[in-house]
Amino acid sequence: MPNQQEAPLCFTCGTKMRPAGSCFVCEGCGSTQSMLQFVELTREMMKPSYVGDINFLLPQLSKSAELITMEWLDYMFDYGTRLFVALDNDKIVGTVLLAAPMVIFVGQKDWIEDVVVDQSYRRRGIATALMEMAHKVSRERGAKSVNLTSNPDRGGARQMYGDMGYELRDTGVFRLMLLPK
Predict the structure, then answer these.
(1) Cα angle for residues 96, 97, 102 (degrees, 5° grid)
(2) Residues 54 and 122 in one domain
(3) Does the pTM exceed 0.90?
(4) What is the dihedral of CA 73, 148, 157, 172, to 10 degrees?
(5) Average pLDDT over residues 87-92
(6) Residue 41 and residue 6 share a domain
């Protein structure tokens, strides 16, 4: 499980940065950037600022996403959902949810949901690192497979999933809306 990301490209000039203590420094222009931390957040670790960070990310995932509350996160944790995040100076900049296991006749299937990285942090391996954390938990709890859905217009994400070994299945996903919008 990664603790820190590899040296990123500088926001200012695009030069690859180098580690320097608790941050990265750009040898091209001298700017600095904090190192990211990759952690699984538990109910006990949650705080109001994290709820705000997640709510900032949700519209980048879906235009129809509704804001969440601490109570909703508690509900998710009650059902066994696991939350993996990338933190930059204690601010959530990326998330992956590993939903509660689905145990059915043919074995256990896990589902990954809500893979989102802030636009200004994309293409640095953050989502991949978070997905790998979720895969590790799925393996440990005996899942036969990990599934996810991805909108066809999310080309970058779909490319990442393919690069990670996910295969596009020839199945249809049906949805019955039970609650009015």
Answers:
(1) 140
(2) yes
(3) no
(4) -130
(5) 92
(6) no
